[in-house]
Amino acid sequence: MVKITKCLNDWNATVEALGQGIQSILIRKTCTTLKEFLLYPTVSYANKDDYLDSFKPGMQDFVKDNALPNAEGKAYEVKYYATVEDVFETPVSHIGKFNNYHIWTKKHVSGYFDTKNANVWLLRVYELTEPVYCTRSRGMVFANVDKKIELDYKNPVVSDDDFEKLKEEILKK
Fold it and tell me: What domains, with CATH codes, occur in the chain?
């Protein structure tokens, strides 16, 4: 069985939105050459009093419920694995076209960029058969977890048909 240590660091609420099929994209400043990684939850954002302001009003209850991951000491629960299905560049002025595909506010997304272009990562997410508690190395976007994780996972969180429809919609934008 394939084992992996590479992980993407992201806010736990975003990891859960990806893992529950609520969103399938990430909007980033940079491209990625990685084709697969674990989704590693981070928590520092949840320590800010105004963190809910980064999320759409209709998603704030979801975010409150998913602000923090399950933890065992300093190890966080890793539940999801993702493959990068596509990455494409779009002008930052056009990222509003993707507002229906993520949980963040327009203000949060546009405030994130100090570049002319954004990269949209289309991810296919899978739930691991058994969650794993682990820590990670330092890294802003990507890092490594402290042990090799077997890629034993369930079906994708978004069905094949729904994902193909979603992919077609997003790539037409």
Answer: 3-172 (2.30.130.30)
